[in-house]
């Protein structure tokens, strides 16, 4: 089989992977604080005795577009958005720490502040507990206060402070569950007092649906070009075999 087929197949495979990532981005265009997935690939020359005119397509480490999404104001006390590059720390089921910008928070039946998916939100001293029946409010510095039923406005009690961190550029990697974690070798993150918390608002997805649709069309055309190369290589092989058979 002509080596051209192998090189074209490597390109077609990466285009399919890219198309899957774009489709996933488009499906999450309305997901709170979703960060668009970015799949990178590069050309690697084929090393051998032949002239280096062929190159395989190899995938690079996938990343994410970390730019902030648009804000939508909900007026709900437990909805929070973060300015700048701030991230909320949450506790995973295995006890490790992960990060998210999806600030649609809730109080569990046992009085724990959680994400919409039920993961405990970390405070400056661990998970944040909320007294039963309390009305919760969150300040611009991440301070969580609670007011019991029937208490006056001056009866607010601080129950914790959101653990908000600012990771270094390229310091986070997306997990299969959609939460971000520190890349290997990155130092543990400390609380960042400079990040402002916007209460009553949520960050939207940073996916641009129009750009994603255009990219899907471009990927489809790239894939079609690779298929034409494979078909052309196969046709050349068949003709060559026919000529050799005649001899």
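Sequence proposed for the structure above (247 residues):
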């Amino acid at each position: 089989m002509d080596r051209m087929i192998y090189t074209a197949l490597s390109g077609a495979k990466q285009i399919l992977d890219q198309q899957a990532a774009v489709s996933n981005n488009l499906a999450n265009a309305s997901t709170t604080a979703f960060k668009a997935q970015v799949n990178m690939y590069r050309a690697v020359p084929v090393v051998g005795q032949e002239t280096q005119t062929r190159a395989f397509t190899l995938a690079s480490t996938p990343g994410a577009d970390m730019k902030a999404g648009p804000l939508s104001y909900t007026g709900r006390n437990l909805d929070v958005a973060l300015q700048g590059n701030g991230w909320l720390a949450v506790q995973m089921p295995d006890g490790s720490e992960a990060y998210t910008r999806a600030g649609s928070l809730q109080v569990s039946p046992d009085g724990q502040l959680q994400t919409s998916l039920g993961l405990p939100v970390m405070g400056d001293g661990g998970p944040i507990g909320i007294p039963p029946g309390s009305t919760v409010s969150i300040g611009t510095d991440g301070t969580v206060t609670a007011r019991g039923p029937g208490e006056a406005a001056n009866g607010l009690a601080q129950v914790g402070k959101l653990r908000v961190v600012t990771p270094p550029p390229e310091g986070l990697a997306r997990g299969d569950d959609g939460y971000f974690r520190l890349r290997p070798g990155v130092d543990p993150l400390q609380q960042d007092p400079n990040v402002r918390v916007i209460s009553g608002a949520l960050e939207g997805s940073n996916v641009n649906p129009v750009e994603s649709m255009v990219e899907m069309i471009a990927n489809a055309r790239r894939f079609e070009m690779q298929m034409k190369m494979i078909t052309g290589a196969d046709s050349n092989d068949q003709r060559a075999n026919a000529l050799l058979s005649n001899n």
